[in-house]
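User: Here's a protein and a ligand (phenylalanine). What would the complex look like?
Assistant: Let me lay out the input and then the predicted complex.
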Amino acid sequence: MTTDLEHLRSDLLASIDAASGLDALEALRVHALGKQGAITGLLKTLGGMSPEERQEQGPRIHGLREAVTAALTERKASLERLALDARLASETLDMTLPVDAVPAGSVHPVSQVMDELAEIFADLGFAVATGPEIEDDWHNFTALNIPETHPARAMHDTFYFPETEGDARKMLLRTHTSPVQIRTMLAAGGDKPIRIIAPGRTYRSDSDATHTPMFHQVEGLVIDKGITLGHLKWTLETFLKAFFERDDIVLRLRPSYFPFTEPSAEVDVGFSVVNGKRVIGGSEGWMEVLGSGMVHRKVIEAGGYDPDQWQGFAFGCGIDRLAMLKYGMDDLRAFFDGDLRWLRHYGFSALDVPTLSGGVGA
Ligand code: PHE
């Protein structure tokens, strides 16, 4: 009996040690400790033994069961570790990529032109201001001297939001960057000079080769004492010469009408024809590039300034149009198609930051 137990013990421990996998190990467990198992069978014999015999054999059989159970547990843990190691080794993912396989991104012409504008105007002492694209009717129209019944509202093809209960304000997508004039004045508190440009997205319900429902404008605003049309003209001339990088830029200010400026002027830039193409510079023909004027008294007042003491000028200009004129694109819709070929062709290197000394033309 004793030697039988010893045999069984060494056989089982050797098999457990040699078990090749978790399934084989489970089969061994059933073989030893299952309902019909060898050790289970031995435990059952204890009942038929004399008390003396049981006292001798009991601890042996229980000891065998414990040793086998411990060996099974240990082997199971080490097989599981091996299985995990094998899985980890086979499931690696190489996160590194060769550098030249990653296509370089490019800066969109609109972003490039915005950077150029900020650089040029920073040199003239203008800060960059911003305002929300989801605007209320008051900032977009009323405060800009466009009351409810004004026909200019109809001209703007505005995207309105459905009215919300409990909110008296009519919300809309701003149709121009001019509401930033009002926001900047109100934030300044009515007692200090202002010089800002406000580039950003604007929206009108319009779509063809030269109009997209979303487009970009840049607003300019100067508020100070003793500001005249002369300051406006000099500023625009200086800006356009720097932007187009030519000294032969000729401006023509045409009397016009905007509710928020008085007097108002539309600004044309002269072009010449080179190889059948229009090029900015010279004065063979005129191209309209921006709207401008002296800030209306009512607008200065809505901005919290005293119009008897403070004057100013403002201008607004399509950024997409500026980009088209400078870099020679002819379809505005391509700007927003997200076509990588177009971006590769017209985009700018991210390292090509516009600076006045380096030439803002990139
Ligand atoms: N907001 C005008 C437009 O969108 C442009 C403008 C701005 C005109 C400032 C005059 C002064 O057409």
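Summary: The CA atoms of residues 113 and 323 lie 6 Å apart.
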